[in-house]
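Quick one, tokens below:
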């Protein structure tokens, strides 16, 4: 006689999603400032003048707006983007951003300080981000790509040049490496 198999239902554990309450105030500030840090890293890699800077800044702002309205956006990305919509969130992000780049004068120094801040962000995400860690870091790498592609480099008065300079391409790869995710193709 064959013993009857147990019909105990298989319980699938859902991956734990991170929320704001999983992070200290300083850790949350790191997450909030991270899109700004990414944008300054890419913009500093190959400064493209006032118009280019505006376009690159708008690219990171669009990434935040898109995350709020995208029903498929990662929950932690959405939470950060939603918090960024509040004056308290913006102030925390800007304060953290200023502290992260304090003392940097040259573009290379800005990129280096931004990369260090992103390594700290990645460490917090790895420690407390749960299932949201990789999607959040991948989203940040996507923000880097969007900023790099926002304004052509070189040329004159917006004509000519290349869409993404070698310096920007290298910095997108550096940002992704600091976050521990593959670099998006630019």
């Amino acid at each position: 006689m064959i013993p009857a198999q147990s019909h105990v239902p298989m319980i699938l554990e859902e991956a734990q999603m991170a929320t704001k309450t999983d992070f200290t105030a300083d850790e949350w500030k790191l997450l909030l400032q991270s899109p700004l840090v990414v944008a300054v890293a890419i913009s500093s890699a190959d400064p493209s003048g006032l118009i280019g800077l505006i376009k690159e800044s708008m690219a990171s702002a669009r990434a935040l707006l898109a995350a709020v309205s995208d029903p498929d956006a990662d929950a932690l990305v959405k939470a950060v983007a939603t918090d960024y919509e509040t004056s308290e969130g913006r102030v925390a992000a800007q304060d953290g951003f200023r502290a992260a780049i304090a003392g940097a004068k040259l573009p290379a120094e800005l990129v280096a300080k931004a990369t260090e801040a992103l390594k700290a962000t990645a460490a917090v995400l790895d420690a407390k981000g749960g299932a949201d860690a990789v999607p959040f870091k991948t989203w940040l790498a996507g923000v880097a790509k969007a900023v790099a592609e926002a304004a052509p480099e070189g040329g004159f008065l917006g004509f000519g040049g290349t869409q993404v300079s070698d310096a920007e391409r290298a910095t997108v790869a550096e940002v992704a490496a600091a976050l521990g995710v593959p670099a998006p193709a630019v």
